[in-house]
Amino acid sequence: MPHINLLPWREQERQASQQKFLTIIGLIIGVVCLVMYFIGAFYDSLTTGQNIKNNYLKAEISKLDTRIIAINDLNKQKNNLQRRIRLIEELQSNRNLGTQIIDEITRVVPAGVYLTSLERKGNLLKVVGRSESNNRLSQMLRQVEASYLLERPIIQGIVAGEQRSRLLSDFSMHFYVKSFQQIEDSQRGK
């Protein structure tokens, strides 16, 4: 005789397949959550590593910034010292400048030219005097131009002598004293 199953087997099969489906879905969700956790942990470790590198770089940059500030301070001190040294050298060279100027003026003034006044304002020398002839004044101009200490002679005026001393002409001129650097350069060139 044939067997007839009157039990609700379709419903049991349906429940079994639903149970199987829910188990597979649960496993997939678990695997996905585990994969997401590992991906998140991987990116967190990358972020942490990058933050450590950034903090290290910031610390090194701040060290370099302090070194740069120290170097800039040293450069300022160096420039100040160099300026002071140049000033001391210039003062040292100018210590005897008045004597050198008088000595050089006696060398450039030819015979027949007589100085009545010599005035110095900074690097400008104003000379007033008398001359026997204009040729002697031109000779004086050439000698000032050839001088290692004096430069740019300019005659401001020549006035013929009065009745009692017709032989002598009054003149006024000015010229400049060379700067410390020009004097040094001309002495090195010799």
UniProtKB/TrEMBL annotation:
Transmembrane regions listed in the UniProt entry: 21-43
Keyword match Iron-sulfur: no
Plastid is among the record's keywords: no
Keywords per UniProt: Membrane, Transmembrane, Transmembrane helix
Domain of life of the organism encoding this protein: Bacteria
Protein name: Type IV pilus assembly protein PilN
Species: Pseudoalteromonas aurantia 208
